[in-house]
Each structure stands twice: as C-alpha cells, then as structure tokens.
Design brief:
Structural class: alpha+beta
Number of strands: 4
Strand content: 5-15%
Strand order of the largest sheet: 2-1-3-4
Number of helices: 8
Low-confidence stretches: none
Helix content: 40-55%
Order of helices and strands: EHEHEEHHHHHH
C-alpha cells in the first residue's frame, strides 16, 4: 500500500495520474496548502521542503517502509516499482529522463511563476508578467516542435508526458493561445482522453 500526500495542483496531479496509470494500490491524503498543512511537523518529516506531493510506500525495497518526496523522484520510483512508463531501452529511457528534467527545471518553475504573477500576485507588475508569459510561450514552442513529428515526448507515452501534461494543460491561465501550438493541443487532447488521467485529475 502507498500513502499519497497531495493537493490539487499540477505537481500533485503528476503523482495522482502516475498512480492511476500504474494500477498500484494507494490511498490519498489531502494536504491543504491554503491552510498551511504542508508546514505541519508531521508532514515535514515526510517532505522536508514542505512541498507536495509525497508518498510513503509501506512495501518498499526489502519490504521496508520508504518515504519519497519531490514529484520527479516519485515518478521515477513508481515507474521502476511498476515496470511501466519508463522505456527499458537506453535511448528511450534517456529521452524520457531528458524531458522529465525539462519539466522539473523549466516548465514547472517558469509556468508556476507565470501563473502566479498573472493571476494571484497582490500587485500586477507588467514587466514581470511579460517576462514570464514570454518564457511560457518559449517553452510551449519547444514542446510543440518536439511533438511535431511524434505522438509523445519520448515517442511512447511515459513519465515525461505525465510530468508535463498537468502544467501545459492550464494554458488559459498563462496567457497562451493554444492555437499557436497545434502539436501541443493535439497531445493535450490525447492524454486528457486517457481514463487513468481522468481518474488521476479527479482524486481531489
């Protein structure tokens, strides 16, 4: 059994979708970010940075309990545990890992800032909004070019797609015209149609 600690954010959705896709047995526990539950000492013992998601696998390596934080690490762990969604061949594996790191180092941080300054910041600062909206457009362009001649980021559906999808699906909040990125639009539709993805998004 896996305990999932999560909230309804793109990073939370990554773990939720992954667990549904793999079919691993889990139970979800909401961590209400608005109420500051991520700062509770008992949660910090699982996720030292106070971020979601985090998991505890009660049947980890050697049958021992294993807590894991950081969404990218969780995706990798669940892929290896289930034997799914990470290519076995070295070329495919590294392609999936490249695009996973692209999400973690670029898509998540930049789109997160774009969303914050466009929708939640107490003061609208035009130069900052323009900076992060422009970077968001750049990242959508990178993904669009990648998907122009392939169905998924690493050719086959993988943790790379699961990592990027929850962030790229919120284009309206980022000031992005998805019509400018037809390959991303097609990819978003294909992933959104997957039953496991729908279940994962509906966890909270």
């Amino acid at each position: 059994m896996i305990d999932l600690y999560t909230w309804s954010t793109p990073n939370g959705h990554k773990a939720q979708i992954m667990l549904e896709e793999t079919g691993l047995e889990y139970r979800s526990h909401p961590v209400n970010l608005q109420e500051g539950e991520q700062h509770a000492p008992e949660y910090l013992a699982i996720s030292p940075g106070g971020k979601i998601p985090a998991i505890i696998d009660h049947d980890g390596p050697g049958g021992e309990e294993l807590p894991i934080f950081e969404s990218g690490a969780i995706l990798l762990y669940l892929a290896e545990k289930s034997g799914r969604l990470l290519p076995a061949d070295p070329r495919g594996r590294w392609q999936a890992l490249e695009w996973l790191m692209f999400q973690m180092g670029g898509v998540g941080p930049m789109l997160g800032q774009a969303g914050y300054f466009r929708n939640r910041a107490p003061e609208a600062i035009p130069s900052v909004i323009e900076r992060f909206t422009s970077e968001a457009g750049h990242l959508y362009g990178v993904v669009d070019r990648r998907l122009a001649d392939r169905e998924f980021l690493a050719d086959d559906y993988s943790i790379a797609d699961i990592a990027c999808f929850p962030w790229l699906r919120v284009f309206e909040r980022l000031g992005i015209d998805i019509g400018d990125f037809p390959a991303v639009s097609r990819w978003l539709g294909a992933i959104a149609a997957r039953p496991a993805v729908q279940r994962g998004l509906a966890v909270l």
